[in-house]
Design brief:
Distance between the termini: 27 Å
Order of helices and strands: HHHHHHH
Shape: elongated
Helix content: over 70%
Number of helices: 7
């Protein structure tokens, strides 16, 4: 039963990874640079450089020249959604010291470090099952 469950999880992971590539390629073919940037941001990925975006576009047949400003605009919206208070609290719960693409939130200050600290303290105070 456990082996079957593991195989199902692996198969699902591969399918998600492949569909992500297919979606990105479809968006590149459509020239939807804003949505590509938005997706990268909402998934918590680091923003692509202009050269990297151009390189990816060149790998897809019939792709237009990337509009990097549209990509950046979409990325900003997506990363702001991803780097929410809840996400920073989750980082704390996981004990993550490196906030990755959300590192800018640490520099902003405000409540973001507080939410991370709350998650981290819950992690440190968890005694586990008895």
């Amino acid at each position: 039963m456990i082996k079957l469950l593991r195989q199902s999880v692996i198969a699902a992971s591969v399918l998600v990874a492949l569909s992500g590539c297919t979606t990105r390629n479809a968006l590149i073919e459509a020239g939807d640079w804003y949505q590509i940037g938005f997706n990268d941001g909402k998934w918590g990925q680091m923003a692509l450089s202009e050269a990297s975006l151009t390189q990816r576009a060149e790998q897809v047949a019939d792709a237009d020249t990337p509009d990097y400003s549209q990509y950046q605009q979409g990325y900003q919206v997506g990363i702001n959604q991803y780097c929410s208070y809840e996400q920073l609290e989750q980082f704390g719960l996981e004990g993550k010291m490196d906030w990755g693409a959300c590192e800018f939130r640490r520099e902003e200050g405000g409540l973001y470090p507080t939410y991370w600290q709350q998650g981290f303290e819950r992690r440190m105070n968890f005694e586990g099952p008895k």
